[in-house]
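Hi D.,

Good news: the full-assembly prediction came through. Inputs first.
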Amino acid sequence: MGSKYQKSVRVWLPLCAITLEVIFIVIFFFFTSYSASVDEQKKLLRDYRAFQDVFIMATFGFGFLNTSLRRHCWSSIAFNLFLLVLGVQLAALLDGFLTQLSLRKMVIDMSSIQRATMIATSVLISAGVVLGKVNLLQLVIMTLIEVTAFSATRLVSISYLDMNMHVSMMYMHMFAAYFGLTVVCCLRKPLPSASEDKDQTATSPSLFTMLGTLFLWIFWPSFNSALLELADERNMAVFNTYYALAVSTVTGILMSALAHPQGKINMTHIHKAVLAGGVAVGAPSYLIHAPWLAMVLGSVAGMISIGGFRYLQACLQRKVQLHDTYGVHYTFGLPGLLGGIVNIMLMALQAQGVDKSTLGYKVLIDLGALAFTIVMGVASGLLTGLLLNLNIWKSTHKIHYFDDQSFWKFPHLAVGY
Amino acid sequence: MGSKYQKSVRVWLPLCAITLEVIFIVIFFFFTSYSASVDEQKKLLRDYRAFQDVFIMATFGFGFLNTSLRRHCWSSIAFNLFLLVLGVQLAALLDGFLTQLSLRKMVIDMSSIQRATMIATSVLISAGVVLGKVNLLQLVIMTLIEVTAFSATRLVSISYLDMNMHVSMMYMHMFAAYFGLTVVCCLRKPLPSASEDKDQTATSPSLFTMLGTLFLWIFWPSFNSALLELADERNMAVFNTYYALAVSTVTGILMSALAHPQGKINMTHIHKAVLAGGVAVGAPSYLIHAPWLAMVLGSVAGMISIGGFRYLQACLQRKVQLHDTYGVHYTFGLPGLLGGIVNIMLMALQAQGVDKSTLGYKVLIDLGALAFTIVMGVASGLLTGLLLNLNIWKSTHKIHYFDDQSFWKFPHLAVGY
Amino acid sequence: MGSKYQKSVRVWLPLCAITLEVIFIVIFFFFTSYSASVDEQKKLLRDYRAFQDVFIMATFGFGFLNTSLRRHCWSSIAFNLFLLVLGVQLAALLDGFLTQLSLRKMVIDMSSIQRATMIATSVLISAGVVLGKVNLLQLVIMTLIEVTAFSATRLVSISYLDMNMHVSMMYMHMFAAYFGLTVVCCLRKPLPSASEDKDQTATSPSLFTMLGTLFLWIFWPSFNSALLELADERNMAVFNTYYALAVSTVTGILMSALAHPQGKINMTHIHKAVLAGGVAVGAPSYLIHAPWLAMVLGSVAGMISIGGFRYLQACLQRKVQLHDTYGVHYTFGLPGLLGGIVNIMLMALQAQGVDKSTLGYKVLIDLGALAFTIVMGVASGLLTGLLLNLNIWKSTHKIHYFDDQSFWKFPHLAVGY
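Then the structure:
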């Protein structure tokens, strides 16, 4: 690895991030102010707690979730925090500008920061796919594009496709998964077969991953109910998420035992299945009026997640050389898609006093919005992938696809102690 | 170990759990609905937080508490989550049916899930005694029996023995400890003396156990005040629990230094003593009107816990071959008993305008309820122990009592990565 | 190490702590009662949450923050909890007596325990400087002196120097840092040059330190807003703290990459910089009316922290043999000083309808209060340092300055398992 390369990244990363930070501060200086309304302040307590829960998920949950690769555990947590705070600042600004579609002064309140945090979470999900294959500078570029693309997608969905706030946010899992998968597809190959094995065997047992999983588990009901306005919808979203998570945990453990030739339970499976229930129940959580439906949904999500990870993963990796480090596709992608479809079905079933043609039209629009989200994810992922391949941050060496070993050979990528 | 045995468990565990899950979903389908009352929903915020605290204790606290045996740490956390979600579902159903004593539709609200979680916590305490000696299928059977038995005990105590909700739940620690100890007594012996040593020396220093302990520490005040209705009782329960925990921590560290010939402080002691204070203050927490009494109670609990673990443990292990892996008897059993007795004394002392004979009768009833809880714990533990010894899940080999080594020899028991 | 020394400490520590605990219980018996007012109880929910956040910071945050030295990780967490519970009890009593300046019965409520916890946190910060250089008995002495000195400082500042509750508490970081540094200066030298190296190299990568850092990160906004009464001030304090933390994280990571010759990011730097933002924004958090100012302040704090740690640390260690184990000076001392100065500037700028001479007088008083806090920290630190050097807990051996190795050679200091 030439020293020229290292220097360029070494200079670029701080330069780029400092410039970003200065731009953010200037924009905040000119365009933001704190809310001064009394009503807003009364809501502080409730919102502060909900916000804290979401923030804990983002920092602890996603931070520790990706620590299972021995070589990346430090990078995972530090990069996670770095990307999160950058993403939140950008999302807060974009959310303000895009919502009011002008450059007037915007008001920063608890709910806007909460929305920004949820949007920035999409970056953390995508990072799970590419971690160990890109450097921090590339991750910063990815953050900028993904947050912008997802904010735009949400805006279009809400304004023109009649989607509500909650559902448009819940499509995030799906968006982030397909974004990340597209990026990783675009990154230059071939993946050396040796590093593939290394990637698998480096998976040392880590209680920290379980810690991250549990943090996500515990606070998922807060996440799924955060954007709902009506008390009874919040209520139902919380209950449904708990039931779905509980059943997807049971299903995941069983599926894992069944899938293993000797009946061993695989911890990686547990991490995936446990979370799949929460993802799947996200979008329709406010429409499910009885626990059994949430339980069935959780159970199906658990099965899809383990089944996909066990059988589809190897197939995709062989066929299209798609290397999904943490199985994001099966934890977030497919369960998110399932949730979106169930949501549309439930909306159609629960629509009352609507004639058939109107209903059919509405279902079409909803399906269109779902497809639009995925298309936007893939398109912006493609853009990001090409950009990450094109540019100055590339090495002239042959191994463009960094395995987890190379993370330590190339100091500029590593997080030392 | 014959392959026939392995296969039978391998098939039985998923089969049994899937059947259970299907039965749960069907019962939930026919017999439950979400609350639709507006008052209920207003209470959501308060109850949601209290519920979250209890749930964090159950998942993080008990999950990480039992990770100190190196061989079991994975199993401990994964099994803990599995048993918890099964237990909560069963307890929610039983609680509904037993409370209304009929098969009418029951309402699922936050407080019913919270009660169910607290009941299911009893399984996690008992699991601390038997962990490493039984397989997951046996733990599932244990969960079913223990949750049923404890729900029934609570119902009888509340309906016929005039106990209040709060105290009947706080007797859980005691119930769970004696249940677990009876089960472990019934499991076939002999314990090979070699494995006994191994059990001790495998205790590698683990910060994770401390993490679990701290999670329990922090949220214990929420646990002890969760079922109290009046604001001032909640208030006092919170304060008293903090003071008791603080003093039991100090006492525990001192006792540990005194008990060691070279004045070393033993981390295992700290885990025990720290929690003993919270257990002891549980039942009487709403009756203690000044901090000093909670402090004295915490101090006594800390002493009982360390003293018992240091001196009684070895004695019991030698005499009745009672092998209490995590010292559950001294963390939960004895301090729980102390709390029960203090509760009865305080109720008698604070009773006003009651003549002596009525008071004596009341104290007798209370003592009877305390004894009844222990007897039910032992009886249902006996039933469970016999059942676990009797059945098809037994191996035909001579070592029926699995030491922590065998956990890895028998793949069907293990949690791999 | 002579056995006489060991015995004396072995006897003294439990004796001293038991005496303390008995004294505390007796004082609590005579002088405290729980609040019986109804208004107070209504505030329980809000205060309980804010209190929990602060308590989680103290136990998890500071407990795990100092685990990075391999030899101390056990001691760090156990001692942290021990010092905290002792400190809280003392601070609660002192706070009551000093506030009412009499020996009447005082009322224990949530806000008094919260204040006591915040005061006791100062001990945990100072412990970060001396950890590994003193034994537990010496830490107990330090706790008693520091809590008393800081309570007195706060009382004088509030009563005579016209400081408000919030600011006087936020000066804690500064007080604790200079207290700890003075103590460590007084501890007998010379520091063997070998142990100095050991201290550095023993810094094994530990995810637990990151866990502690994240706990502090997450709950810092609660800490900075805990003592503010008005809803809009709380609101602003929460927002400003988030923005300052976010920007100090970004700045810290960049500075770390720039400071390293090969562009590596140093995790120790991240821990420091991440927290520096929260410390710096503490005092002025309620006066900052726009996010950009908090962002600039966080950015400067991050730079000071990394710059100081990287360049000033080595210089101080060589010149005055000041050995600051965890870089407390750069995480808490300097950023705290920055926050204090910014607070005075903002108060002066935002003062309205005040003529110039009055304003000048006010600024002088404020600067005096700031200086007084530092002087009190240094003075009480000097007293503590001399006391710790003087006494019976000293060994007659030549190595008075325990390196982290000796922690395990001298059993009375160690936490075993």
